Each structure stands twice: as structure tokens, then as C-alpha cells.
TrEMBL record:
InterPro entries: Antitoxin_Phd/YefM, YefM-like_sf. This is Antitoxin. Antitoxin component of a type II toxin-antitoxin (TA) system. It holds the Pfam family PhdYeFM_antitox. Belongs to the phD/YefM antitoxin family. It comes from the Bacteria.
Length: 79
């Protein structure tokens, strides 16, 4: 991943975009601090489709037996 200063990214934006399209994202810095990442649209789409852990849990097909008892006690389980 390339690191590039904001003013350089502005001056060479077309080249920075071409690199991102070819799989090389760029970290854009301002005053030496990372501020943004430029990556291809396809990579952004791929990453934005990854569900959060919370969403995965909410969509899990749970049965009442899968959850702990409300009183905090131990449930008998047959093996």
C-alpha cells in the first residue's frame, strides 16, 4: 500500500486512481497523519458486503434451546 501526501495525490490523482484500479490502494496523508484510503470501487464493494459480527448473530437461526436459561442456571444436556 502506497502512502502519499494529499498535495501529491491531488497533483497525480489520475495515476493514484489507476494504481487503485490495479489493486494498489493508497493511504493519503495530511501533515504526516493518515487521513484517507483510496481503493478501487470493486474492492470497496467487496469490503462493504462483509457483514458485521452483530448482523451475523442477529440473522442466526436460533432455537430456544440454543440460549442460556433466563435464571442464569445450568441447563441439563443429554449426550
Amino acid at each position: 500500500m502506497q502512502e502519499i501526501q494529499l498535495r501529491d495525490a491531488k497533483a497525480t490523482l489520475s495515476a493514484v486512481i489507476d494504481r487503485a484500479r490495479h489493486g494498489e490502494p493508497s493511504v493519503i496523508t495530511r501533515h504526516g497523519r493518515p487521513e484517507a484510503v483510496l481503493l478501487s470501487y470493486e474492492e470497496w464493494q467487496r469490503l462493504s458486503q462483509v457483514p458485521s459480527f452483530g448482523r451475523m448473530l442477529m440473522s442466526a437461526p436460533l432455537e430456544a434451546e440454543d440460549l442460556p436459561p433466563r435464571d442464569g442456571g445450568v441447563r441439563d444436556v443429554e449426550f
